[in-house]
């Protein structure tokens, strides 16, 4: 990877390079093979990035004309603020690009997008075993101490 790294909104022309990153992200969280997301979910996710009525957005990290990372984020209402909160839902960098600043740059890109709309916070979740990512997260954000609960249907 060169020293030049661009963080920019995803474009429709990025699909062929975005898809392997998306697949890598999903595989990291155990969604591959028999447990892979249905292709309809991937198609819908991709289409939402380009729908002005959707609160979902995507940034990519590009180096030397190649996408090396992605992040997806969602603005949503909250009962504790007037401006929307920003949920950083997905963050992934190509294995060869890790430790070289792409993840931090993508997070900063989301921070900038949130600031532009007046969002009071950006927050995200990661799995408790994702030690490598948490080394970065501990440097760029705080852990508020909340525990997630969920029920799947």
TrEMBL record:
One of its GO terms (molecular function) is N-acetyltransferase activity. The keyword Acyltransferase applies. Residues 5-153 form the N-acetyltransferase domain. InterPro entries: Acyl_CoA_acyltransferase (IPR016181), Diverse_Substrate_AcTransf (IPR051016), GNAT_dom (IPR000182). It comes from the Bacteria. PROSITE patterns: GNAT. The keyword Transferase applies. Keywords: Acyltransferase, Transferase. Signal peptide: none annotated. PANTHER family: ACETYLTRANSFERASE, DIAMINE N-ACETYLTRANSFERASE. This is GCN5-like N-acetyltransferase. It comes from Sinorhizobium meliloti CCNWSX0020. The lineage of its organism: Bacteria, Pseudomonadati, Pseudomonadota, Alphaproteobacteria, Hyphomicrobiales.
């Amino acid at each position: 990877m060169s020293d030049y790294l661009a963080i920019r909104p995803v474009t429709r022309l990025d699909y062929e390079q975005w898809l392997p990153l998306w697949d890598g992200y999903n595989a990291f969280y155990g969604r591959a093979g028999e447990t892979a997301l249905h292709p309809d979910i991937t198609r819908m996710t991709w289409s939402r990035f380009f729908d002005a009525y959707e609160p979902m957005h995507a940034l990519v990290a590009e180096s030397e004309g190649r996408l090396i990372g992605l992040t997806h984020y969602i603005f949503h209402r909250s009962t504790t603020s007037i401006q929307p909160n920003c949920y950083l839902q997905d963050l992934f960098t190509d294995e060869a690009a890790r430790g070289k600043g792409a993840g931090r740059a993508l997070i900063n890109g989301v921070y900038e997008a949130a600031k532009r709309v007046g969002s009071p916070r950006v927050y995200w979740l990661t799995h408790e075993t994702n030690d490598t990512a948490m080394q970065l997260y501990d440097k760029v954000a705080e852990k508020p101490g909340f525990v997630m609960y969920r029920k799947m249907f």
